[in-house]
Design a protein that fits this description.
mainly alpha; about 500 residues; two-stranded antiparallel sheet
């Protein structure tokens, strides 16, 4: 495709986002930025969260992973349902019962300031790394197909992209993000449907025939029964449940959107609709991945060096202008959604959890807004640097890297919340940061040596569970049953 046409798509979509930001940012306050005034329609939040849950990782990396892992990712998605049910029935009542803006405030109420800062810091680390992965994945495609043609450095591309996000989220914050996420969901799904339609045409096969061909191929294999395989189905299922809990239920980015709903009942409806919708949507992406591999085999197209480049290559080089345009809009939408929600959530967490700009702050509203804007700008610069850095080390599928990093950084959060919700014990608060730091280190040692120590067993995504367990045991060691901190007993698990 012509680079100018690609750039025009990017600019047009950006203009649409600024229009939405202008509407949603009217008469905005700090409360609007952080909570969306808690009046978002639950079905709008649910639809937008489908796209936010998928992001650029699913859009590009999941279809490419089919070549190596078949449909085994689908078992992970089925595990999500268990995790999302836990979020709806356990976590949301706690968050709404305590009227939280930042979900990590729970840790302060339950344990104390050291635990609170530790939990927020691990989120900031986790979300910063995860967002840089997601943004890199999609911005890199723009670099390859547009900016490389003009000799523009990757760093300039990323800075331009992050600058636009900075501008349109500056005022409306999470209220703007909730509505712009709906665009991402729409265009991502449209891109997949268009691609499947064109492959059906080019291969001269009906949709039913394509489904039969995929089901008869090795690409459709979903269940792997070898316990030492990273794709072992029980590993995948339970890992999916815990990944959903930590990467949605314990993640300020995803929960901040959920907490903009009007009440707990609406928030639960949002979670259940979104979670069940992810099953057919992810199946559609895996189906597309299998079709892409069958397509390149039949058409004699050379496979790219990286599996993440397969979908962009076919959409932009072999499917014509219409498919390329729809793909690009979906790509740009995924890129924006990967970064805008994260930028807003990181700003929220740092402002409230680290700087203490919540309702208890004695600063004037104007001062709070000024500080929040400075934090917003600093995180935009920080994420830009991470994305540029990540390009130099991107040597494997982003989906694999993303969940591997999550296993180390979200594990302590899993242990902290599990201990807080399911025990009546308090901890020596000042020792919690040490426990949270030691846990990922021990998990890494366990992962590196598992083949030798456990008869060939290789850890996959389930490393997250063991990381959380190590944190839980560490908290148990420094706990005392005679003490129990709970600022809001009626919101706690009985």
């Amino acid at each position: 495709m012509n680079p100018l046409l690609i750039l025009a798509v990017f600019i047009s979509y950006s203009a649409l986002l600024f229009l939405i930001a202008g509407i949603t940012g009217r008469r905005s306050t700090n409360d609007t930025y952080f909570t969306g005034n808690r009046n978002s329609p639950w079905y709008i939040v649910a639809y937008g969260m489908i796209g936010a849950s998928l992001s650029g990782v699913t859009f590009i990396s999941i279809p490419g992973e089919v070549g190596a892992s078949g449909f085994s990712y689908m078992v992970l998605v089925l595990g999500y349902l268990l995790g999302y049910a836990f979020i709806a029935q356990v976590l949301l009542p706690v968050y709404y019962g305590r009227k939280l803006t930042s979900i990590y405030t729970y840790l302060e109420q339950r344990f104390g300031p050291y635990t609170y800062k530790t939990g927020a810091s691990f989120f900031i680390l986790s979300r910063s790394i995860g967002s840089s992965f997601r943004v890199f994945l999609v911005v890199n495609v723009l670099q390859i197909f547009v900016f490389d043609n003009w000799g523009i450095p990757f760093a300039v591309n990323v800075a331009l992209f992050m600058g636009l996000i900075l501008l349109y989220t500056f005022r409306g914050g999470i209220k703007t993000v909730v509505w712009t996420d709906t665009l991402q969901t729409t265009f991502m799904l449209a891109a997949v449907i268009v691609s499947v339609t064109i492959i059906s045409r080019d291969m001269e096969m009906s949709l039913g025939a394509l489904i039969n061909q995929v089901s008869e191929s090795d690409f459709s294999r979903m269940f792997f029964s070898e316990i030492n395989d990273k794709r072992f189905y029980l590993k995948q299922f339970f890992s999916g449940a815990f990944i959903a809990v930590v990467m949605t239920g314990l993640d300020q980015d995803m929960m901040q959107k959920n907490l903009t709903c009007r009440n707990l009942k609406d928030a639960k409806k949002n979670i259940y609709l979104m979670s069940w919708s992810l099953v057919p949507v992810n199946l559609l992406f895996l189906f597309l991945g299998a079709l892409l591999y069958l397509y390149v085999q039949k058409m004699g197209i050379a496979m790219p060096l990286r599996s993440d480049d397969l979908f962009p290559l076919i959409a932009l080089k072999h499917h014509g202008t219409l498919a390329g345009l729809v793909f690009l809009i979906g790509l740009v939408a995924a890129a924006y959604s990967s970064a805008d929600g994260s930028l807003t959530a990181l700003t929220t967490s740092f402002s409230i959890d680290i700087l203490g700009l919540g309702n208890k702050s004695n600063l004037s509203d104007r001062k709070k807004v000024n500080i929040r804007m400075i934090v917003h700008l600093c995180f935009a610069v920080f994420l830009t640097g991470l994305v540029v850095l990540f390009r130099s080390i991107s040597d494997q599928s982003v989906i694999t890297k993303l969940f591997t990093i999550a296993g180390y950084t979200y594990g302590p959060l899993l242990g902290l919340y599990a201990f807080g919700l399911f025990t009546k014990r308090d901890v020596v608060d000042r020792y919690v940061p040490l426990i949270a730091l030691v846990s990922p280190v021990l998990s890494y040692i366990l992962s590196v040596n598992s083949i030798h120590w456990f008869n060939g067993y290789r850890f996959g995504f389930e490393l997250l569970i063991f990381n959380g367990l190590i944190t839980y045991i560490g908290l148990l060691i420094i706990s005392d049953r005679r003490k129990y901190r709970n600022a809001n007993p009626e919101a706690e698990i009985k």
